[in-house]
Design brief:
This protein is an alpha+beta fold. It has helices at about 15-25, 55-70, 100-110, 140-155, and strands spanning about 1-10, 30-35, 45-50, 75-80, 85-95, 115-120, 130-135, 160. It has a four-stranded antiparallel sheet, with helices on one face. Helix 1 (about 15-25) runs antiparallel to helix 2.
Length: about 160
């Protein structure tokens, strides 16, 4: 897994300019997180997680970096082969009424990154279900992650289903 942290101008098409070279050089994108709440001087921090095949990683990553620099995209951080663990779980309840964005930001503040999110929408007054795939640091124990998720669920009156 490759983690890339950049700053993009808050203008239409910026995200496409970031994604294009990753795709062009064989990257498989797992997640993108815009930090609109951290915008400074019209620049938005963006985190992106993607994979490159092992045999292409060196050349492809160099080409991606070169293309991003040529497009004046500010690269703040690149980390390759992070030693993180992944967990998939489902949250049910009034997930959207209780602000799913807040839930994601709270997980992110604990260095828990949402890689994938699938939602089943229902009527506004009915419960919804959201499946999340998260990545968490190797130093964090699985029970610590689950405790953090359960704490959020308890506050928001949501139900956690996990393996």
């Amino acid at each position: 897994m490759i983690y890339l942290e950049v700053k993009l101008p808050d203008i239409p098409g910026s995200l496409i300019e970031l994604i294009r070279p990753i795709s062009q050089y064989g990257g498989n994108i797992y997640g993108i997180l815009h930090h609109h709440d951290k915008k400074i001087n019209n620049m938005i921090p963006v985190d992106i997680w993607f994979e490159l095949s092992e045999e292409l990683i060196q050349v492809s990553l160099e080409n991606i970096k070169k293309d991003l620099i040529n497009k004046n995209i500010q690269i703040n951080k690149i980390s390759v082969g992070s030693k993180n663990k992944v967990l998939t779980f489902i949250i049910t309840g009034h997930v959207f009424d209780t602000d799913i964005t807040d839930t994601i930001k709270r997980l992110d503040s604990k260095n828990i990154k949402v890689l994938d999110l699938h939602a089943k929408f229902t009527e506004v007054d009915e419960i919804s279900s959201v499946m999340m795939k998260v990545e968490f640091p190797d130093v964090m124990k699985k029970f610590e992650l689950i405790n953090e998720i359960e704490k959020i669920c308890k506050e928001k009156n949501l139900f956690l289903i996990r393996s």
